[in-house]
Amino acid sequence: MDAPSLRINATIEHENTMVITCFPSVGMVSSIVAHYLIDHLDLEFVGGLVDDRLPALALIQEGVPLPPIRAYAGKPQCSIDGCDQVILLMSEMVVPETLVHKIVWALFEWSKEHKVLAGIVVDAFPKAGMKSGMDGVDPVVEYEDTEAIDVVGIGCNEAVREMLKEMGIPLLQQGVIRGMNGGILSEAMRRGIGTMSIMVEADPRFPDARAAAALIERLNTLLPSMDLPQEPLIAEAEMLEEQLKALMEAAGGNEQGSPSSNAMLYG
To answer: pTM for the whole thing?
Structure first.
């Protein structure tokens, strides 16, 4: 295989789609948000990204094997003009740096071919004074720390930046975003595509369901069909923590905490 390929069920409509990406983040916020959206927006598994340089592993959920980078789709209510469908891309795996540009290019070429309308990058940054432990792909964000859970935004064109302001999300003034999320934002900016990132302050020591809830509150502006019960989110975080620990141990094959055991998966 020469290049990564996003393979989605041929029966799925692609035009006028809002794509939400949930790649590994501080406090497993992106994973918690992704699972919440799948459950509460009735998104169905429709495919995934294939590349022979990715590790050969399957994530097992309730007896079902799933690829490490997978896609879900549905047609929830959406407040963005022209948005008819949502496709969610998610992974618990930290994509190797050598593959980031190739995978990002493949995703945007697919988006161009299928006339994707908009994009949202779900992300998180560590609380002030804490280290994320994300193997070199942790974001570095300079922000005004408050007692509340802080949320900041990044917009890849002026229209999206105005949208973030209308949602009450202050723009990130300075920072560095690495890995898949950084690659997606850079390429969206280069292509002039209406893509935003919503980033939330999270505790890197454990799955931070409260941070995920703060981010979902902002997403509710764009996807108003969601409600926000706190208890299921917290239960989801606990389940994900155990699931990802088991996955890391199975993929690593050596002592917990050694470099090769957590280089590919973040939890």
So the answer is: 0.85
